[in-house]
Structures are given as C-alpha cells and as structure tokens.
C-alpha cells in the first residue's frame, strides 16, 4: 500500500451508538458547497476514507453506502470512501464543527465552515449521524438508503512557527484567540509599553 493511503483511523461508537472516527482522513472537501463537475451548488460534503474493516462495519451496522474508487496507479490500493453530508438548514440542528489551533478552539458556522476547504489538517475526529431516507415511497420506483451526515467534527490545523507564535496576540479589535494575556516578553526587547 502506498504510504499516502495508510490509515491510522479508529472506529468506535458514542453512547447513542453513532459512529465516531478518530484520526480520520478526509478527501474531496467541499464545505463551501461550491458547484463542481459532480456537485451541484450548495451541496456541502466531504469524503471519508475507510479501511476494509471500517467499511464493512459501517455498511453492516449503519447501512451506509460505501463506495470503492479503483486506483488509477497500480502501485496504489483502491480507496473506500463514504460521502458525508454537511447540512445547514433551519429544519435541522447545525453540525458542531470546531477548528483547533494553538490559540484555542473556534466553532464554525455556515459562513465560516468553508475555511476547512483550504487549511492543512494534522488531525480530524468525527461523529457521524446515520439518517434513513426513502424516495417515491409506495411507488414502483421506490428507493431508500441511509445517508451519512456529519454531526460533529474537530479539525486541528497545521501551523508553522510564526502562526503558532502570533496566534497568541490579540487582533486590532481587542479580541484574543486564547483566554488569558501573557506577561510581556522582556527577552525580545518589549517592555509592555505600547508606542501607540
């Protein structure tokens, strides 16, 4: 198996029996709901890469429709993926999606969640919500299945040295990303008095 396809993900269950994926690998991110070749505008989603064992359990226990994407390169394994829907609607409870960096945690909403499409992630932990659906109920062309909705997600972003250092400084609006102020760093020639 190619190193980039190596998974360290672990599937467990929360007290309600919902699937929890620790150290998830996600691909084809579209938290913005951007229109693409295979995605209509407004449809927010992301794909979760699974091991054979995880795919088998999520299909058997939850009824999810796991897809196999055949590798184009003979040196790589096929990918087992599950599309996760990211739904923001007045009819449902919004997913709890948390961006984590050295400055703390930030809960994302429908206006800020698109930032997850562009950041480098070092860790992702997810809780999935299985949702049974039926179309054309009672008709000859009735179809049904179970959709995988993203209920919770914790996304730890990769930061370089500067990002980690400057994340501790309040922004011009007076807000701070962490919860307390540090003492001035005398070793850098800063005595705490502002020149402004």
Word description of this protein:
The protein has 196 residues and is mainly beta. It has one domain (3-135, 142-173): OB fold (Dihydrolipoamide Acetyltransferase, E2P), CATH 2.40.50. Helices cover 9% and strands 36% of the residues. A hairpin with a 2-residue loop joins β7 and β8.
Furnish the topology, listing elements before pairings.
Blueprint lengths: L9 E4 L5 E4 L2 E6 L14 E6 L1 H11 L4 E3 L9 E7 L10 E6 L2 E5 L12 E15 L7 E15 L3 H6 L30
Parallel strand pairs: 6-10, 7-10
Antiparallel strand pairs: 1-2, 2-9, 3-4, 4-6, 5-6, 7-8, 9-10
Descriptive key words:
mainly beta, globular, 196 residues, 2 helices, OB fold (Dihydrolipoamide Acetyltransferase, E2P), disordered C terminus, ten-stranded mixed beta sheet
What is the CATH level 1 assignment? Answer: Mainly Beta
Overall shape: it is: globular
User: What is the N-to-C succession of helices and strands?
Assistant: EEEEHEEEEEEH
Helix content class: under 10%
The N- to C-terminal Cα distance equals 58 Å
The helix tally amounts to: 2
Radius of gyration based on Cα positions: 21 Å
Number of domains: 1
Major sheet description: 10 strands, mixed
Which secondary-structure class do the elements indicate?
Answer: mainly beta
Overall mean confidence score, pLDDT: 86
Low-confidence stretches: 176-196
Strand proportion, as a percent range, falls in 35-45%
| Number of separate strands | 10
CATH architecture: Beta Barrel
Give me the CATH fold name: OB fold (Dihydrolipoamide Acetyltransferase, E2P)
């Amino acid at each position: 198996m190619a190193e980039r396809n190596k998974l360290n993900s672990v599937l467990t269950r929360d007290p309600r029996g919902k699937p929890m994926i620790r150290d998830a690998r996600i691909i084809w991110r579209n938290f913005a709901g951007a229109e693409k070749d295979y995605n209509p505008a407004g449809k927010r989603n992301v794909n979760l890469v699974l091991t054979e064992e995880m795919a088998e359990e999520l299909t058997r226990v939850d009824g999810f429709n796991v897809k196999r994407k055949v590798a184009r390169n003979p040196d790589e394994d096929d990918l087992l993926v599950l599309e996760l829907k990211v739904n923001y609607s007045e009819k449902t409870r919004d997913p709890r999606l948390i961006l984590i960096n050295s400055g703390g945690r930030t809960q994302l909403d429908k206006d800020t969640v698109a930032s997850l499409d562009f950041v480098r992630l070092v860790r992702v932990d997810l809780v999935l919500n299985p949702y049974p659906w039926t179309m054309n109920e009672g008709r000859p062309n009735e179809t049904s299945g179970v959709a995988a909705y993203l209920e919770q997600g914790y996304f730890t972003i990769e930061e370089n040295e500067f990002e980690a250092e400057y994340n501790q400084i309040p922004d011009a609006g007076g807000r701070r990303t962490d919860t307390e102020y540090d003492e001035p760093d005398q070793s850098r020639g800063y005595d705490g008095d502002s020149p402004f």
